[in-house]
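Progress against Task 2.4 (sequence-to-structure conversion) is shown through the following example record, which the project officer requested during the mid-term review.
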Amino acid sequence: MVGNYVEEHDLLRSILLLLVMSVGAVAAFRTLRLPPILGYLVVGAAMGMNGAEFIPESEGLAFMGEVGMVFLLFAIGLEFSMKQFMAMRNTIIGLGGLQVVISTLSGMALLSYFGASWQSALVAGGAMAMSSTAIVVKQLNDQAEMRAPHGQSALGILLFQDIAVVPFLVVIPLLAASGGNEIGNTSEFLFKVSSYALLFFVTLLVGHYTLRPLFQYIARAESLELFNITVLLVALTAAWITQSLGLSLALGAFLAGMLLSETEYKHQIESEIRPFRDILMGLFFITVGTKLDLGVLSSLWLPVLLLVLGLTIGKGLLIGLLTRLFSKSNSSSLRTGLVLGQGGEFGFALLALALNNNVMSSGEAQTTLAAIVISMAISPLIIRYNERITTVLLADTYTHQQFKDAAEVSEAVNEVQDHVILCGYRRMGQNIAHFLQEQGVSYLALDLDPSIVEKTWEAGDPVHYADATRPEILIAAGLLRARMVVITVVDIEVAKRIIEAIRLKREDIPVLVRTRDERHLEALERLGATSVLPETLEATLMITQRIVEQLGFSPDEVFQMTEKIRTDSYRSLHSYYHGDQEKPQQGNKAAFLHTFTLQDNDFGVGKRISELKLERFAVNIKALRRGDIRGEQPSPDILLQSGDVLVLEGGKSDSFREVENALKTGGKTTKTSATPVITVPDSN
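Structure tokens generated for the chain above:
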């Protein structure tokens, strides 16, 4: 009993220590704009038995790390989309398949040269064939390059890498079962592989016909607790089944996630498992980091250096060359290679699985583990400057390609003038084009979705596959002779880059930008947008307009009312009364409204509004109601009276407590009971 208590106490102490160190490390790495994964790996390497030895080897901690790997694979499975796979099947299967096979064989040959066993070299080669989905997708989204040709090619390769993990998850336990023989009994090995393939197919079939009805039944119970328990049950049961069959826990979790990704509950499941996933994945990467022995790397510097060069340069060039087979552009091919020239989190999962199954020794894993970590640390910098690197390396070729793309657009539209340029041709862009066409206004649209461009081009719409963030493309689209530019893209970073490109070439053209809400309104206006149209606020105006028209107001009065709001950048619509359960989104300009009634003995009675200096609390008086009369934006010289109701406006709900105290006592601490506050229902 005492021994168990001591062991549990040590485990709890280790977890607390890891959490404290992880908070500091992840915060530091985010500040440096490096992936948080590296922070976890550094914590593990520094605090483990190969470092400061603050974290003893523990079966409990190792098991939690395995569960973290289960959730990593479950989350990746959830992100897998069969529809997306079919839409990009040529890129995924052709390009992705060639990349994984050639990268694996290349890594295997290099490690075999340094004396690794073929089993170990196979696993390490597969680990290095994988790239980091977390780093690549986040960085490309931040740089508004996800929908660019190199972003789409990178996405296709990453999708195949996700799928390619599955055979490795099957083969690694089989390699362990072969006992290190030269593949053991070949016929027995093939029989096992065939059996597992059949079980894999049966699992997919059963899951397809049982999981959706199960979650439909659970959803009808309207219990979030029951829903969460069911998600955990499905993920862990699938992991247990595959482990019982002699395979890995992670394989079952991936299959469960992949099956659930095709249900209507995918997004809810993603939301609910995020807390478990993030914490346990962090522990998994920490346990991987504990296996990294920094002390032995000095003797392995040459193979580590060669592997790092192989991952960043060799793998990058290989992907660039393979992408060129599927693309006509040298520049986008090279940029795809630069983006994917690193190891990834799946590599850690494969190495951890190989170590747990004794397919690799700890010494054999050190070189690969160190190379993947270093390549991931370098990768964000390479991705950030992938365009500049391409410009330098390809020089005239890259410039020629840019002008060639622009020339193709220019040739097709050289007779169009006095037109509207639509940047983005999805639903809103197509609706706008429809209305422009009805009014006889010529337009031209630019989009980077090849399926949309192909279909609309066949239908006769003037839509071109082109990147609207590039100034030369906009010039080719007739920017200098256009009447207006309308930006309908959803990605706000892409919209910002388009505005910058427009203003670089033309200052006077009207630029209208559509956004989902008002969060980015000021930023877009500062960049040069003539009008920013937030969908949520415009919907409010449209509904209000219809209401006042039905009430009998003249069209001129309605027009003046709505235009006044738009001219004022929707300022009067930014603030509203929030309910108890409602929290404004991060970065949203929406402010809080709050009411306060002055009592006889309050400090504010008899004072002018200007004397109260409420601006120090970042709060202003939006309106004042005295009796049945309400005045908007009251004068600072008004003397306040007992019974006045003040409508306060501020960006934070917490500020109103300080304002109430200032109105009651002048800012002094008081022990009197709180004055009742009038509750006003949410205006929405």
